[in-house]
Write a structure and sequence with these properties.
Strand content: 15-25%
Structural class: alpha/beta
Helix content: 25-40%
Largest sheet: 5 strands, mixed
Number of strands: 7
Length: about 190
């Protein structure tokens, strides 16, 4: 009995704490409640199964590399400035981290980014909050963003508007979202 607590989520995280004194069951008085708060904040449980690494984000590219990219040179230049991130499956805390990293890395700085959630089946509450924060940060950094969200997984459009004062355009298809971003860029230029 030492007051040490170790928790591991395979392919997700590792946490270790050491903090005597001990409670009547031999657990750390300080570490145990903190670990419970951490589990609650990340939506993890001791029995949750992690998603397969890398299975959430299926494509990170610019719109000019898509099969539907235009052939006219001036349109291709605009499409080069639109990053595209495609996700699939169920998005939890770890998957949301991968999606947000891909959004940050997609397209040129100052360009637009399209997040395609067409093949996403579910977004848990923690991941939803993370995606809202990440998309709001992109908008506040001056990047344009659009979402393909035919099932409304991100909630009503006004949810993001409240935090940023800007609408986050939503589209039914990736092609429509890319075209909307390219037109917005053309209007700025």
């Amino acid at each position: 009995m030492s007051g040490g607590l170790i928790a591991v989520g395979p392919a997700r995280f590792g946490v270790a704490t050491y903090s005597p004194p001990l409670d009547a069951t031999g657990g750390s008085v300080r570490a145990t409640p903190r670990w419970r708060r951490c589990r609650s904040a990340t939506g993890s449980t001791s029995c949750s199964t992690p998603r397969l690494p890398g299975s959430t984000v299926t494509l990170v590219t610019t719109a000019d590399d898509l099969p539907s990219a235009p052939s006219a040179e001036h349109e291709r230049v605009l499409h080069e400035q639109v990053g595209v991130v495609v996700a699939q499956g169920s998005i939890d805390f770890t998957a949301a981290e991968r999606v947000l990293y891909a959004l940050d890395e997609s397209g040129p700085n100052g360009g637009s980014v399209v997040l395609d959630l067409h093949d996403v089946t579910a977004v848990d509450s923690v991941a939803l909050a993370m995606l809202h924060t990440g998309l709001a940060r992109l908008l506040s950094d001056g990047r344009r963003a659009a979402v393909v969200d035919p099932r409304g997984l991100l909630g009503p459009p006004d949810v993001l508007r409240e935090g940023t004062g800007q609408d986050l355009p939503r589209y039914a298809t990736r092609e429509d979202a890319v075209e909307g971003c390219a037109q917005a860029l053309a209007g700025e230029g």
